[in-house]
Amino acid sequence: MFILNYSCSAPTEQPAVSETNVNDTIFSPPDTSTIPDDDFGAMVRYGRDLIVNTAYYIGPEGVAGHYLGNKMNCNNCHMDAGTRPYGLNYFSTHARYPQYRGRENKILTLAERVNNCIERPHLGKPLPLDSKEMVAITSYMKWLGSNVPVGQRVKGDNGVELQYPEGAADPRNGESVYAQHCASCHGPTGAGVMDPWNKTYTYPPLWGMQSYEAGSSMHRVLKMARFVKANMPHLKANWKNPVLTDKEAIDVAAFVNDDRIHARPVVRPEEAGYPNIKTKPIDYDKGPYADPFTEEQHKFGPYQPIIDYHKKKGLPIVF
Ligand code: HEC
Ligand code: HEC
């Protein structure tokens, strides 16, 4: 969770460390050749393998247990095994947990946070906290961030910043962006492309019942737009050389995540979350909110008036 202008929130909220007060060079994670040749190193290696080949190990037909409800891999979003700058990496993840989380309104351990992603977007059931797989995943994250000071952020560990358009996001324009820049891989129906063995995806889905759930972070327009701007189209765009403009990234995220056009698994009622509504992200599309703006405006914008209102009232601004 990324909080700007931290002012008032749950008393246990960790103060935000913004990108402006971190070192100027992009964090560079250790090379895999430096993974130690001991028991810890074996867990780190297995953890990395689980991030990349998640469906193979713990997917619906997984060889190490059936936990995920879909065949996506962590790596589809946490790209390059969680080592890609501005690609939802795990650089500082281990250093920042346990951490207050607004959805649960409590402090979560890193293992509990991993289970959040297994439950949603993966539609799964939680890994036992003491399972070999959970220990492996958190060991890998610890190794990856071993040079990050406890509690800190590092440059490149968050999404890129976007300039918000004055008006609302435009899903119709997003549809043309999608046809031009995305459909060749993710498919005209957004269903992605399975590998020839039907084990996982060559190109992961963006909507439909096999895709990520509503209410997961990727379902938020700004969160997704920040990811897409720095990473998609795959193999062409990176944070230094994006292909899409900020507006195109926001519009295509609005198109993909528009529930009036596209079906996807719905939020399970027990997962609605945010008992303290002040901690809801600005672009979360289900009320109630601590401000008077509609669900539609929270989802599609214009976002700036919401941000200005939060500033004025001293409400947290969460992304
Ligand atoms: C559909 C995309 C997607 C998939 C697949 C996915 N995640 Fe995530 N995950 C996200 C997003 C987006 C965030 C950022 C949430 C935020 O910033 O609040 C996130 C956040 C996290 C975090 C917290 C990171 C931090 O630094 O605070 C952890 C840990 C995590 N995911 C683990 C996993 C694991 C393990 C898997 C595979 C089992 C997985 N995720 C699969 C999208 C995904
Ligand atoms: C050249 C093929 C290609 C193109 C074009 C492309 N993607 Fe992707 N996309 C991928 C692949 C492959 C992944 C998974 C990355 C991995 O596992 O390493 C991915 C992952 C994603 C994800 C996270 C995983 C998921 O399925 O939710 C999103 C969101 C996404 N792409 C959106 C887009 C958007 C929006 C566009 C157009 C602007 C786009 N992509 C264009 C290949 C592509």
Describe the structure.
This protein is mainly alpha-helical and 319 residues long. The protein has two domains: 137 residues, Cytochrome c-like domain (Cytochrome Bc1 Complex, Chain D, domain 2), CATH 1.10.760; 161 residues, Cytochrome c-like domain (Cytochrome Bc1 Complex, Chain D, domain 2), CATH 1.10.760.10. It has eleven helices and six strands. A hairpin with a 4-residue loop joins strand 2 and strand 3. The longest helix has 14 residues. The chain binds heme C (2 copies). The site of one heme C has 24 residues, from helix 7, helix 8 and helix 9.
CA(first)-CA(last) distance: 6 Å
Tell me, what is the CATH class of the largest domain?
Mainly Alpha
Q: Predict the CATH topology of the largest domain.
A: Cytochrome Bc1 Complex, Chain D, domain 2
CATH architecture of the largest domain: Orthogonal Bundle
The CATH homologous superfamily of the largest domain corresponds to: Cytochrome c-like domain
- Radius of gyration based on Cα positions: 19 Å
Strand portion: under 5%
Shape: globular
Q: Tell me about the largest β-sheet.
A: 2 strands, antiparallel
> Roughly how much helix do the residues carry, as a percent range?
25-40%
For the largest beta sheet, what order do the strands appear in spatially? Answer: 1-6
Instruction: Give average pLDDT, whole number.
Output: 92
